[in-house]
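USER: My hope is that you can spare some time for a protein that puzzles me. I am handing you a single protein, as its sequence and its fold in token form. Walk me, if you will, through where the backbone shape changes along the chain. The protein I mean follows directly.
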Amino acid sequence: MTEPPRPPGAGDPGDRPDPTAPSGSSYEPPTAPLSGAPGAGGYPPPGGYPPPTGDQPPSGGYPPPGGYSAPGGYSAPGVGYPTAGGYGAPGGGYGAPGAGYATDDDRTWSLIAHFGGPVGVVVGGSLLGWVAPLIALSAKGQQSPTVRAHATASLNFQITWAIANVIGFVLAIVTCGVLFFIPILTALVPIIFGIIGGVKATEGVVYRYPASYAFKK
């Protein structure tokens, strides 16, 4: 089926020449600008501005509201700081006095075990430093593992140096007093370290006595 002839001037409207165009110039139909391309006069089409990114300041050169960093590079107040005292809890994270003991009774018997050693050395002629630790172990060692640990450490140390003191006396007698200083040293050692062990016990720490043989496990 053939297309009927068109009347004159009934061609495609898009192909009609512009009557205002200069004579002799070729005519090109207007085309819509591509998206984002500048329109007439060099201005971008309405709505064609790219959205501002987070790292670009708005017009005027100022950063967006809320984008200022704190002076000196510090974070915002109250962010990232520990609570009062720096221990994660209000008022600090210090434990109660005598930390390391379940009860005050445990603390008392542990101190008796340690400080009682030097007292026994002084009172008992350098031979009875083991009496107080043994009493503490017998009285409370079966009920409290803490007291047992403290009393056992002190007991083993005091027994070791009580034996050393006996040996020192024998050597002093055999040598007719030439080695008289040995009994003095073997008496001073359990006094000094017994006091150190007692000080550590006040902090809830089981002191590891030097030069001590494990008579009691």
In short: The chain is about 40% helix and 0% strand.
